[in-house]
């Protein structure tokens, strides 16, 4: 038998509720609010729930259960977890690298939200309502001020033609430019090039955006200060360890639900809410024939569940060995997906109101990603009484949603490093506090590149290449293979039984062995075949070649860890081919919790024998 390395005594959650709340706080983040509702609307409304639920059952839930139970089994973080199949330790290294990149750029979204929150508090009215600020341009015009003209596109749509003639325009004027519209005209280029004050506030006041990645410009000092404060908040949430973090998440994980409920009640009472909800939920089953819809469903599940970054492993590792992690993980999966659907009702009730007020279609005002948080919603609340109150409510929710996802990802990274090198921190006074502070400072300094005038382009580059897409799918594929094919699925089921007292459903065996790795690899190949270089359509910006090269460096910095480590450890390990397979793929290790269970069982038998005697 290979003896397990001596592990320094580590903390545990005070109760199973701490674990569940931490998982909810981590997994439920901005992706549930800014990505799922838009994907649902874009990919067939209610029909999108079919591929989404299938993806959840085949991939999301199996991997969520796998990661949390893996951590609980070994009571160790994302690097030490691979002592049961050492040849795949590169997966843990890749996860740590990916988590490091994610920690750097994800948090900048919170600095943007803090900027909006600060401006909502400190001014008499929200500063994106009108065009009389220093950052506004002559093109600024409120989206709620109707321009007295109709565009060529509107006229062409009316006649259902692609090319307008003078006769079309003349006939349209005769029919529509009468009565209240007698002074209306056909829109000129200047009329159509107006920019809303919401967009100018975002571009010029918040981002101070430059012409591109090759024009980094100066530091946005207000964003840098807000970024610093958010880093300090995240540090204070985790620096003392899980006993402290387990209490913090009760606030950070529950507060967004209170905010979402308040926003939902207000949203459903608005004019046009029904229009938005119809666009959100009305099923279009023809969309299910498009491959993009299924790929979007799979990637959304991976994105919103926070898989592959080592955080879930870390959170599970602080459980007691006999905790029923199986049922708790399923509970969190249900809450996560339910929150995504619930958030869609909130978002699209406001988007329907926006579309009604602006006399536009929902398709014209619906946006995904940062555009939803920082353009669509701030615009939507302008027509509400007490605009500042709703603004404060919304951006507080964004901050709470993002903060716990951020510090739980940080905890996953720190747990992996500290468990791998416990002598660096656990045997020293304030060792953990100092180590966490050093990494936070380094991450903050690197993250300053995202709060320059060209920082938005850096952010998009990190988001596209560093911790999502093919890099994440590559990691999850090998993570699943490590358990199902290297360790052996029957052996893993025995480990599960030793923890929870019974064998899980055979469904998960099918998923871990066949379905989940097949889907991961299939979507990975599809993404690479359909690969198109990153482009930001909102700014009509194509990245330079060196930008894409840097992006691929971010991807490969994690992806190459997996084959690289496997090759290195194979040649380093002594022995015959069969001996290496045994040592690197299926070593015999002693698992502390399982040993204690066996000792307790032996003691119970002795007691029973004594009583019977």
UniProtKB/TrEMBL annotation:
Pfam families recorded: SNF
Keyword Cell inner membrane attached: no
Binding site for Na(+): 25, 27, 32, 304, 336, 401, 404-405
Subcellular location: Membrane
InterPro entries from the UniProt entry: Na/ntran_symport, SNS_sf
Superkingdom classification of source: Eukaryota
Spans traversing the lipid bilayer: 16-34, 46-66, 86-113, 223-242, 254-281, 293-317, 329-353, 392-414, 434-459, 471-489, 510-529, 549-571
Covalent S-S links between cysteines: 131-140
GO MF terms held by the record: gamma-aminobutyric acid:sodium:chloride symporter activity; metal ion binding
Gene Ontology CC: neuron projection; neuronal cell body; plasma membrane
Lipid bilayer topology: Multi-pass membrane protein
Keywords in alphabetical order: Disulfide bond, Membrane, Metal-binding, Sodium, Symport, Transmembrane, Transmembrane helix, Transport
UniProt-listed PANTHER family: SODIUM/CHLORIDE DEPENDENT TRANSPORTER (PTHR11616), TRANSPORTER (PTHR11616:SF265)
Name this protein carries in UniProt: Transporter
Lineage: Eukaryota, Metazoa, Ecdysozoa, Nematoda, Chromadorea
